[in-house]
Design goal:
Layout: H1 3-33, H2 77-98, H3 103-142, H4 155-204, H5 214-244, H6 246-271, H7 282-313, H8 321-346, H9 360-390, H10 394-417, H11 437-455, H12 459-491, H13 499-506, H14 512-541, H15 546-558, E1 560-562, E2 565-567, H16 569-597, H17 605-630, H18 637-650, H19 654-669, E3 677-680, E4 683-690, E5 694-699, E6 704-708, H20 709-714, E7 718-719, E8 727-736, H21 741-754, E9 765-771, E10 775-784, H22 790-807
Antiparallel strand pairs: 1-2, 3-4, 3-7, 4-5, 5-6, 8-10, 9-10
Helix pairs in contact: 1-2, 1-4, 2-3, 3-4, 6-7, 7-8, 7-12, 8-9, 9-10, 10-11, 10-12, 11-12, 12-14, 14-15, 14-16, 16-17, 21-22
Length: 821
């Protein structure tokens, strides 16, 4: 007995068990759900079997009136109908399995029926669970039944508890039945998947007669006359029908031809407006290719659809010509799109649009060979469909697959032998035919494998491999182009010259670092979306069924279990989008605060920077929490992660956390703020920014000094502008010993009072510091409103003092004499 028959037999057994289980539920559950009636008293007559015994009477109390027993509990009609429909569906699945003939149609239909059972059982069970929870809540409110040594409760409470327990038991039984049905249906789908994989693998690995032996060709010679008569009859019959409507068919073909030629001319003129001398960026070329490729395929597609619909309107598409026309139409549509895509990417006639770095000669040759491969692939699919319609002999199908595989391999070898010359390569420098090796070596191995498989008789495997090389290459090419376009779109906006960069900078006021943050997040979201779209297409090309791919995609997008965690790619993607949007809104809020609220001199620059930084951190934290929560990660688990990280913080991350906390202290206590003039470790300058890790100080030499925040908190820092900008200037003056000290002090005081920047409160202070045999020493101390202008004010005061001394003929102190030697 074959594995296929064993699998079918096992499936029939499982389905039969499901039917018996559902029927048992329908017949047994009403009896189990109802309240069991107490046994009649021996003295009672048989005519009164339904009268319950008298309720027990508590001691020292009057006899209580007997209450009727609760009525039998029957499942609701919707539940009974749902179980009946599920049973009927499983019975139909069993019958379909017993007479299964075709893999694609019958197994696909059977799987759809079982999936309906899964969906419906889940829906009914989800509807019953709230009702069961309500009943259990009511039973819990009634409390447990009293023990034997406790006083009995009221008969009404006992009856109500019995009724609720009966209903809860009935619903619980129905839910468990549905859960068992769901589990067995999932097991059935797994078996269908395994069966499909076994049949697919067996069909690929089935060995036919080798084309090197004459047996195959003798069968072809024997079957050819029969096939020729069949094809001749079908073609002749259709031509006779078309001849009777000759003028209409001729008009249709002429209209289709004009549609194709006219549409091609218009489309090429419309899409050729970018063919200028200006060099296009990759983003511009990739963006144009996304719409140029399908637009240039439209004329051929429109002409093919016109011919098909026109013949159908003339009633010329009847069996089997209708199926043949559908196969030809699908082949034409596929070739038109793939050929247009190849021509757009390689652009042999438009080098300024070319998306790959190839010379004109290499691009033309490779484009022609690839389009020929697409034509062979489309023709092979069309002939295969014709073979199914016309029930062609097996020998003809084998030869068709053999010819298609060898022709495809020959074109592939032609591409591998073509040199991939880079654009701008001089003619005297010949490019090696072996480069690029990372691409050509695997393709050489694939070509040799296809030839060996075909020669050894594995024709189906050779044909499958040849098809997958083309279609996987097309999907990979489209995905790669889209990925490169995404990178060009997200990474170039960091430059101010990029259109998107200008928009983000001008309209939203986002600087380079903020644009880069949004670009990284956007690239991650778009790349993940591209992978989610490309992977199912590749799986479908590799032979997986659409139902299996749909289940896998559904599980990947909407959640699958990994240990105790549930991972959902869709929720992760939406979480990334939410984080990007919230971060973008945070940046817009910061820009609005800077431009409309935190303006100088209304708000201090340091306060404005602290508010702007706090808003940025708060928005980023909120965005991260929202994104993490929506992605499915319990935020409360972050405490566990933080506890695990505490060990690492105690060792390697201690300095980082110290600087982070110090940065928060700087932002809250504000001992140092943006714009302050500070002195740290012999270096001084103005504070430009305070981040969570470090503080940037711009020295007076216009150099950036990066100081860890912990040094500013734990070390000694001189802040000239901590509370205000008022500062004191000290100017020392030395004159000759012949000068009058009183006159010098009067001049210094007059110069200080006359300067507009010097404050009158506190008053300027002049001191006579000392004298010696050659000089008198004085000091002028003044306060200015903005210490940041202290250097300029000191210069102006010294210049004025010098002019006054010169006018008064006051001699300055002589320079000290340095002894030689």
């Amino acid at each position: 007995m074959t594995s296929h028959s064993l699998t079918r037999r096992g499936f029939r057994v499982v389905a039969a068990r499901l039917i018996v289980l559902a029927l048992l539920v329908l017949t047994i559950e009403p009896g189990l759900a109802q309240q069991p009636a107490p046994a009649p008293q021996p003295a009672q007559s048989a005519a009164q079997p339904e009268q319950p015994p008298p309720a027990p009477v508590p001691p020292a109390s009057a006899p209580a009136a007997a209450l009727p027993a609760p009525p039998p509990v029957v499942l609701a009609p919707d539940v009974s109908d749902a179980i009946a429909r599920l049973t009927s569906t499983m019975e139909g699945a069993e019958k379909s399995l017993s007479r299964m003939q075709d893999l694609d149609d019958d197994i696909g239909k059977l799987r759809n029926d079982v999936e309906i059972v899964i969906a419906r059982s889940t829906e009914v069970a989800d509807d019953l669970r709230p009702r069961l929870a309500d009943l259990r809540g009511q039973i819990e409110k009634l409390g447990p039944a009293p023990a034997k040594d406790q006083p009995p409760e009221a008969a009404a409470i006992t009856a109500e508890r019995a009724r609720l327990s009966s209903e809860a038991a009935a619903l619980d039984g129905a839910i468990k039945t549905l859960e068992v049905t769901w589990v067995r249906a999932r097991q059935t789908i797994d078996r269908i998947t395994d069966l499909r994989l076994q049949i697919f693998t067996r069909s690929l690995m089935e060995r036919r007669s080798s084309p090197l032996f004459p047996g195959l060709w003798m069968d072809v010679v024997k079957d050819t006359p029969q096939v020729s008569r069949l094809v001749g009859y079908i073609v002749g019959d259709w031509l006779n029908s078309a001849w009777r409507r000759g003028p209409e068919v001729l008009a249709l073909l002429i209209a289709a031809l004009f549609t194709y030629l006219g549409g091609r001319t218009l489309v090429w003129r419309w899409t050729g407006h970018m063919n200028g001398a200006r060099a296009l960026s990759f983003f511009e070329r990739a963006a144009s290719a996304t719409w140029v490729a399908p637009v240039r395929a439209l004329p051929a597609i429109a002409a093919a659809l016109m011919v098909y619909t026109g013949l159908d309107a003339m009633n010329l598409l009847y069996y089997p010509s209708a199926r043949i026309a559908e196969a030809i139409l699908r082949a034409v549509l596929m070739f038109s799109f793939v050929a247009s895509l190849i021509a757009t990417v390689l652009a042999p006639l438009e080098p300024q649009r070319r998306l790959v770095d190839l010379s004109d000669r290499s691009a033309s040759r490779i484009s022609l060979l690839l389009q020929a491969m697409a034509a062979i692939y489309s023709a092979d699919l069309a002939i295969t469909s014709l073979g199914r319609v016309l029930y062609l002999p097996l020998s003809i199908s084998v030869v068709q697959s053999l010819v298609a595989s060898l022709a495809f391999t020959g074109l592939l070898i032609g591409i591998l032998l073509a040199p991939f010359e880079r654009a701008g390569t001089a003619a005297e420098f010949e490019t090696s035919r072996e480069t690029p090796r990372w691409l050509k070596i695997p393709l050489w191995l694939a070509a040799v494998g296809i030839i060996l498989a075909a020669v050894l008789g594995y024709v189906a495997l050779a044909r499958f491999a040849a098809q997958q090389i083309l279609m996987t290459g097309v999907v990979a090419l489209v995905a790669t182009l889209l990925f490169l376009a995404i990178r060009a779109f997200t990474r170039d906006p960091g430059e101010a010259s990029h259109p998107v960069g200008r928009m983000l900078e001008v309209r939203f006021g986002l600087d380079g670092p903020r644009r880069q943050q949004l670009a990284w997040l956007t690239e991650a979201a778009l790349t993940l979306s591209l992978a989610i779209l490309a992977l199912p297409i590749l799986l479908l090309q590799w032979g997986f069924s659409s139902a299996d791919i749909r289940d896998w995609v559904k599980a990947a997008l909407f959640g699958f279990e990994v240990g105790h965690f549930r991972i959902s790619l869709a929720r992760i993607l939406i979480g990334i989008v939410l984080f990007t949007v919230l971060l973008f809104l945070t940046r817009l809020l910061q820009r609005w605060l800077r431009d409309a609220v935190l303006l100088q001199p209304r708000v201090d620059a340091g306060v404005a920077h602290s508010i702007d930084t706090a808003v940025g951190y708060a928005g980023t934290i909120v965005a991260a929490l929202v994104a993490i929560s929506y992605a499915g990660l319990d935020v409360t688990n972050l405490a566990i992660v933080a506890g695990a990280l505490s060990v690492g913080i105690g060792f390697g991350l201690q300095s980082i956390v110290n600087n982070f906390v110090s940065g928060l202290i700087l932002l809250i206590e504000r001992p140092i703020k943006v714009g302050d003039w500070i002195v740290v470790g012999g270096e001084q300058g103005n504070v430009r920014s305070i981040s969570v890790r470090s503080t940037e100080i711009e020295t007076f030499d216009k150099a950036s000094l990066i100081v860890p925040n912990s040094e500013l908190i734990t070390g000694r820092v001189l802040n000239w502008t901590h509370r205000n900008s008022i500062g004191r200037l000290v100017i020392k003056v030395s004159t000759a010993i012949t000068a009058d000290p009183k006159a010098i002090c009067a001049v210094l005081e007059e110069v200080a009072k006359d300067h507009p920047t010097v404050l009158s409160v506190p008053k300027p202070l002049i001191s006579f510091d000392g004298f010696n045999a050659s000089e008198l020493n004085f000091t002028l101390r003044v306060h200015v409103g903005d210490i940041n202008r202290g250097l300029g004010v000191s210069t102006e005061l010294r210049t004025t003092i010098f002019d006054r001394f010169k006018a008064m003929n006051v001699q300055l102190a002589p320079a000290p004499v340095v002894a030689a030697g």
